[in-house]
Design brief:
heterodimer, A: mainly beta, five-stranded mixed beta sheet, 0% helix, globular, B: seven-stranded mixed beta sheet
Chain lengths: 111, 115
């Protein structure tokens, strides 16, 4: 499976934008870029995914580099409820559809 | 959005007993479900892929006789931890894929403590 690299941790002030980076230099042409987050003591939660174009939904935006070797999850206004571990995962959509979780980025939000 | 329900959320049992965890997809059919295990301060590790109507596929190092998986219907998969020991204490999480949307939905997890 193609790997992703994320910073171990990041901090943000409440109500400020947060940019969570992810490097995936070995991404293949058919790999989707998925983001999930896990709040403490809960199962992961889907955030957003994309293939080539930037994507927006009610939770976040996903900016994908033109060469697709990196992407950035953008939370437009961080709230205390956004404190979680954010996972960037490449998903081919083929085969068994399993997700492989890395260590993710632990986001702390400062009030 | 789609919901995956996992039950129980927490279980405490004595060493040597068996524990069953249920995972239900509430508003979509899931031919494939996944079971993960997560130790404190670590990431999720895939244990097995549960396939409706057939045998589960286990990841390397996961004992299939210890972690019994049954996926008898399109909305229910169960994980039974047999003869549980303290080292099996962990956070178990299931997921189901809504493949048409290319999204997986996760249960809230089950925290197992074996005394």
């Amino acid at each position: 499976d193609a790997k992703t690299t994320q910073p171990n941790s990041m901090e943000s002030n409440e109500e400020e934008p947060v940019h969570l980076p992810c490097n995936h230099s070995t991404i293949s042409g058919t790999d989707y870029i998925h983001w999930y987050r896990q709040l403490p003591s809960q199962g992961p939660e889907y955030v957003i995914h994309g293939l080539t174009s930037n994507v927006n939904n009610r939770m976040a935006s996903l900016a994908i580099a033109e060469d697709r070797k990196s992407s950035t999850l953008i939370l437009h206004r961080a709230t205390l409820r956004d404190a979680a571990v954010y996972y960037c995962i490449l998903f081919s959509g083929a085969g068994s559809y399993q997700l492989t979780f890395g260590k993710g980025t632990k986001l702390s939000v400062i009030p | 959005g789609a919901v995956v329900s996992q039950h129980p959320s927490r279980v405490i049992c004595k060493s040597g007993t068996s524990v069953k965890i249920e995972c239900r997809s509430l508003d979509f059919q899931a031919t494939t479900m996944f079971w993960y295990r997560q130790f404190p301060k670590q990431s999720l590790m895939l244990m097995a892929t549960s396939n409706e109507g057939s045998k589960a596929t286990y990841e390397q190092g996961v004992e299939k006789d210890k972690f019994l998986i049954n996926h008898a219907s399109l909305t229910l998969s169960t994980l039974t931890v047999t003869s549980a020991h303290p080292e099996d204490s962990s956070f178990y999480i299931c997921s189901a894929g809504q493949l048409a949307k290319n999204i997986q939905y996760f249960g809230a997890g089950t925290r197992l403590s074996v005394l």
